[in-house]
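(Fold this chain)
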Amino acid sequence: MKERDWNEEYQRLFSLPEETADEKLKKYCSIDQLSAEFELIAVDIGMTIIDEFSLSASEKTIKPLDIGGVAGGEKYLTNNIFFKVFLLNLFPTFSPLL
């Protein structure tokens, strides 16, 4: 099954004409439908990532990516949706400035 290209679908819908009331209605109903589908899938994936956060990478259904970066956090890509989970360190090492 081919993954959806959310951006391409959105750009295609956004570029539809809206010169008549019927065209506007069709265009914006289509964008609304796409947004609702994206939200449904993204929330489901996000909940899975959160539910499995404490598991090891090998136990996770959606595997984190090793793509580097400077801000840290775990990155995931599934269904052509990119997720980044920030890892907050509540107890940073104290390093006084001298």
The chain has one domain: 6-85.
